[in-house]
From TrEMBL:
Signal peptide: none annotated. Transmembrane segments: none annotated. This is Acetyl-CoA synthetase-like protein. Keywords: Phosphopantetheine, Phosphoprotein. Residues 704-940 form the Thioester reductase (TE) domain. Residues 36-356 form the AMP-dependent synthetase/ligase domain. It comes from the Eukaryota.
Length: 1085
């Protein structure tokens, strides 16, 4: 039958939902509202017209409010009913002047009571027979609470009550309309309540006004309702009580006159249930109803990707939209390859519809990206990990149902997105703010992208990453049907891990080092403990992690106590060849690589502290498994991989250990290693520097390394503020995760700096490294040589576990920067400032007095750890270079202005956090010469820009030290606020405090590594505690440096730097800034 063109209701708010129902009864009576198929093969299509649906709404209104259209009050709809009945009941309640509240029957009794109380709802329309004991339990719990909260229950109307001539009713059939609307509803009045999924607790009750619901239609309907050919949208498996069901199955056909494909009604008695949605029956009814577009949940797309029948059908659709969760990249790309116009959609009960599907072809490759409607105003709030939170703002044309922002007004979604790297206006959701995993070292893992990759493995049903407050990330994997195993059977677990490992390797490939997942950190969920799911079917992340908390912490206890990782197959032969091959195999497996060389430094090949930990664990396990060597494990040493980072050397060390247990490197060997490296990187300095005719100023063009670090970002901040500085070149290594600007923005926000300064035209962000040609290419390198007048070299790896050999790339990088100057046209004029460390003097003999501001040429005084030794080597190499150079030995740096930022991975903040949990702080003898971050940075610039070239060696420590006891006393008082105590934390002797930490380390509780991070620095604190005991026996210790840190002369640096001459002692306000910062970043709670 040919129909006239639809008469579309206005979308400007001049008609509300009850008025639109009547509008369509008159203007669009013959146009289909719903379509479904019946018959043996679904060959008969039934079309429910707007006339039928409108009349069903009137009949429902009469049932619920027979007397008048002046009804009031909220009515909950908790029912398992056919879609057409359910939505007619919801619309009928609105038509009767009541406020419907569709509630998922999957909610718990307590959650339902919570929603009823929040909405002051005392009446339930439902299907008592098909929801089990749900209503009985609700009534029982209300009665048990003893609160006067009356509940009335009404059975939902039947299909026959509402649609007496289903699919056949015409205008001439008898019908008694419900009362005329007594008055037009206010746009600001509540039209209905909807609820959130409740994934983080009880679901939230969210009022939807007539205005907000009408505004939803202005986003997607203008394009969709006029599309040719007319759209028929499939929504069969969408629950009618969800927001997406309410919108697509009720509001969209009311305002857009778009026919909606649904399952046929099958409920004819009180015990019947609606057709359960499955991929197979959904596919069948999509075909038989001749729908030409689809909005679906991801689970169905994952099921259909391997069905040619499904792919062929979806290929014919105008579009296939999905939402409510992610689909894996493999599935999305496979659908794209099949020719399907796939669109990601985004919206929320709290803030409405925000995006539209791509109706035309040509943008299919953007399937995982969304474009927000021009009707929506979004504030993109940058996060520290390079993502942006979506904040939907309140405007004249769009009013979120809930506002949680005041200035500007709007709704902060907590959903995080990344912008498309090349296509303006496209965004991809990557997770939620509260999903971000913050590791114990402060790094942040965004789990969603990695989870989606792992979900591409067919044996994985669900994936949840974990790792909050731990060094390394792990993953909880729920297996797909047919792949379940006995998780107590180690062989089965090992087999399933190997099957899912290729997908984890793929996820690791593009992940930062701290986010990578190791085999030891793969946890398989038990079939007896399925992961909790929301009514949408998505995994409830927090509930899942809570369910498996004990299992997760058990893994970390094993790893963090270095007790081994179970049985590892040992080498086939314990000789140099067999052990080397075994170590290479283990290293490749840990790094998800096939390229580990046995003759190169592991840390130059991508190894980090976690990799070293796991390799050490595997060596230990192999020694235990080979029982004849089990006793040798105790002699292995925690830092064996750091001490022997080249596999052939490591293998030889282990073999020597098997013969005669020995202890590490000797002092003589370390001195020789230092001298050899100095000699190696000082070659070629014999030629004199060419004289330069340039009269440039050191401020003309500054090349600065390490600007994404703590000191470097402060130096950069001051350079950008200094009007006398003309050009700044910030050279940093590229990142595989974040762009260069995003990394700087994150650091500036962390420090409380004005991010807008990073837009200054004199700043040039360079991606390269201190390698040959600085990684820049010949042309850029030469141009930079022409321009640069000062170099400030700060970038250095901070890791006290590594040996000198692992820092050789940094020494080589320093030599490359020296060559950059020496081989350039301005070699004799360029200033070169190197930030060395007091760590290069930890072996100094204090009986000789303070460490002098001169080059100490005996390397034995530099022996400590690889970090300090490498700084000493570079200082000596720079001295030989002949450049206008200064080496500034920087001491302990503390938080400074403006916000007191002090990295939570430093040893002092860790003392504070651990002390809070232990109920005491350590008292140490003597004073500390800590310098604030801002004063340190300004002093470096004082040296770089001094009128006359400063002397070569300078010590940057505080010339006016502060007593340890005074600092800890203020911290103790400030922590009263954090802990809620009425008394300050007591100060106890450092050794006694260390023993408290040691005791907790012996038998740590599940959360001790989080609450007492000092456990991980136990050996370091042991050295401080013993040094404090020695200092306590010395006369005059009240003015000596605390914890054996050593005294340093500062007279020369005070002559050069006004900042150092005038720097005030650490004050109470400085300490208060530290505490405020640590609280602000969630470190102290």
């Amino acid at each position: 039958m040919k129909r006239d063109a639809p008469v579309f209701p206005p979308l400007d708010g001049s008609l509300t939902i009850p008025e639109v129902i009547d509008f369509n009864l008159y203007h669009n009576a013959t146009h289909p509202f719903y379509v479904f198929s019946v018959g043996k093969n679904g060959s008969d299509i039934v079309r429910v017209s707007h006339l039928e649906f409108g009349r069903a709404c009137h009949r429902a209104a009469r049932i619920f409010n027979p007397a008048t259209a002046k009804g009031s009050g909220t009515v909950a709809v908790i029912a398992l009913a056919d879609t057409i009945v359910y939505q007619a009941v919801v619309a009928g309640l609105i038509r009767a002047g009541l406020v419907p509240f569709p509630i998922s029957p999957r909610n718990s009794p307590l959650a339902i009571i919570h929603l009823l109380q929040e909405s002051s709802c005392h009446k339930i329309v439902g299907t008592r027979a098909t929801v089990g004991n749900l209503f009985d339990e609700v009534e029982a719990k209300v009665a048990a609470a003893g609160e006067p909260f009356k509940l009335d229950f009404v059975e939902i109307p039947t299909l026959e009550d509402l649609f007496p001539k289903l699919g056949r009713e015409v205008k001439d059939d008898s019908f008694v309309p419900y009362s005329t609307l007594a008055q037009r509803p206010s746009l600001e009045s509540v039209c209905m309540y909807l609820h959130s999924s409740g994934s983080t607790g009880f679901p939230k009750c969210i009022p939807q006004t007539h205005r907000t619901l009408v505004e939803w239609t202005t986003v997607s309907l203008p394009d969709m309702k006029s599309y040719t050919p007319r759209l028929v949208m499939g929504t069969m498996p969408l629950p009618p009580f969800h927001t997406i069901g309410i919108y697509l199955q009720l509001i969209q056909p009311l305002f857009g006159i778009i026919p909606i494909g649904v399952f046929p009604p099958v409920v004819h008695s009180s015990g019947d249930q609606p057709m359960p949605p499955t991929p197979d029956n959904t596919l069948k009814h999509l075909k038989s109803t001749k729908t030409n577009c689809l909005i679906i949940v991801p689970a169905f797309l994952h099921a259909w990707v391997n069905s040619q029948e499904a792919l062929d059908l979806m290929k014919s659709f105008v579009f296939v939209g999905y939402g409510g969760g992610p689909i894996s990249a493999k599935v999305g790309d496979a659908l794209l390859a099949a020719g399907i116009n796939l669109s990601s959609l985004y919206g929320g009960t709290e803030f409405g519809i925000t995006t539209v599907p791509a109706l035309g072809r040509g943008s299919e490759s953007n399937w995982e990206w969304v474009r927000f409607s021009e009707k929506i105003t979004v504030n993109w709030a940058p996060q520290s990990d390079g993502t942006y939170e979506c904040q939907v703002l309140t405007t004249e044309n769009h009013h979120p149902a809930i506002e949680n922002m005041r200035s500007p007004r709007g709704y902060a979604t907590s959903d995080t997105f990344v912008r498309h790297p090349t296509k303006e206006g496209l965004w991809k959701i990557v997770g939620r703010i509260d999903d971000v995993i913050i590791h114990s070292a402060g790094e942040k893992t965004v789990p969603a992208p990695m989870e989606q990759v792992i979900l591409g493995n067919p044996i994985a049903r669900s994936v949840v990453m974990f790792g909050r407050n731990h060094d390394q990330a792990g993953v909880l994997v729920e297996l797909a049907a047919g792949h379940e195993i006995d998780i107590l059977d180690e062989a089965q677990v090992a087999d399933i891990r190997s099957k899912i490992w290729p997908s984890i390797e793929e996820a690791n490939r593009n992940a930062p080092a701290f986010s990578r997942i190791y085999k030891e950190m793969v946890l398989i969920a038990s079939r007896d403990r399925p992961l909790p799911r929301s009514p949408k079917g998505t995994v409830m992340r927090k509930a899942a992690l809570n369910l498996y908390e004990e299992d997760i912490e058990r893994i970390y206890r094993v790893v963090e106590s270095t007790a081994g990782t179970g049985k590892i197959v040992p080498p086939k032969s314990w000789d140099i060849a067999g052990l080397t091959n075994w170590l290479v195999k283990q290293a490749n497996d840990i790094r998800s690589s096939n390229a580990i060389s046995p003759s190169k430094d592991l840390f130059d090949q991508g190894f980090d502290s976690l990799s070293a930990t796991f390799l050490h664990l595997r060596i230990s396990s192999a020694l235990r498994t080979a029982q004849q060597f089990a006793k040798v494990e105790d002699s292995l040493g925690q830092n064996v991989v750091y001490a022997h980072p080249v596999i052939v050397d490591l293998a030889q060390f282990i073999l020597d250990l098997l013969k005669t247990p020995v202890d590490g490197d000797t002092t003589k060997g370390k001195v020789a290693a230092i001298e050899n490296m100095i000699k190696k990187y000082s070659e070629g300095f014999d030629a004199p520097l060419p004289l330069s005719k340039s009269t440039s100023s050191p401020k003309d063009a500054v090349l600065l390394t390490g600007t994404t670090g703590n000191i470097g970002s402060h130096v950069l901040f001051f350079l950008l503020q200094d009007e006398g500085v003309k050009e700044v070149y910030a050279l940093n290594r590229p990142s595989s995760t974040d762009g260069m600007l995003a990394r700087h923005e994150a650091m500036f926000r962390d420090k409380g700096f004005d991010v807008e300064l990073l837009k200054h035209p004199k700043l040039h962000l360079l991606e390269g490294e201190a390698s040959d040609e600085l990684g820049l290419g010949v042309e850029s390198y030469r141009e930079l040589q022409e321009r640069v007048t000062s170099i400030i070299h700060i970038a250095w790896r901070l890791d006290f576990n590594l040996t000198l050999s692992s820092f050789e790339p940094h020494v080589r990088g320093t030599r490359n920067l020296i060559d950059f100057v020496r081989q350039g046209p301005n070699a004799s004029n360029v200033r070169f400032v190197f930030t060395s460390s007091v760590g290069s003097a930890l072996g100094w003999d204090q009986s000789k007095g303070p460490y002098p501001e001169e080059v100490v040429r005996d390397p034995k005084y530099a022996i400590s750890n690889g970090y300090g030794e490498s700084k000493y080597v570079s200082e000596r190499v720079l001295e030989h270079s002949g450049l206008q150079a200064s080496s500034i030995r920087v001491g302990q740096v503390c938080g400074g202005q403006p916000n007191g930022a002090w990295a939570t991975t430093d040893w002092v903040p860790i003392i504070v956090k651990s002390g809070l949990a232990l109920g005491a702080l350590p008292h140490a003898q003597g004073v500390v010469s800590w310098v604030s971050m801002d004063a340190t940075a300004q002093t470096i610039l004082d040296v770089a820009f001094a009128k006359e070239q400063a002397q070569f060696a300078l010590n940057l420590v505080h010339p006016r030290p502060t007593k340890w006891k005074e600092i800890m006393g203020v911290i103790s008082s400030e922590l009263m606020i954090v802990s809620g105590s009425t008394t300050p934390l007591p100060l106890i002797p450092f050794y006694e405090w260390f023993k408290k930490v040691e005791e907790r380390a012996k038998n740590p509780a599940a959360n001790d590594f989080e609450k007492i991070p000092g456990i991980k620095l136990l050996s370091f604190y042991c050295k401080l505690a013993k040094a404090d005991q020695i200092l306590g026996k010395k006369p005059g210790n009240h003015c000596m440096e605390s914890a054996g840190m050593g005294d340093f002369s500062t007279s020369c640096i005070q002559n050069v730097s006004e900042t150092m001459r005038m720097v005030p002692p650490i004050a109470e306000v400085d300490i208060q800034r530290w505490i405020a910062y640590w609280k602000g970043v969630g470190f102290l709670v």
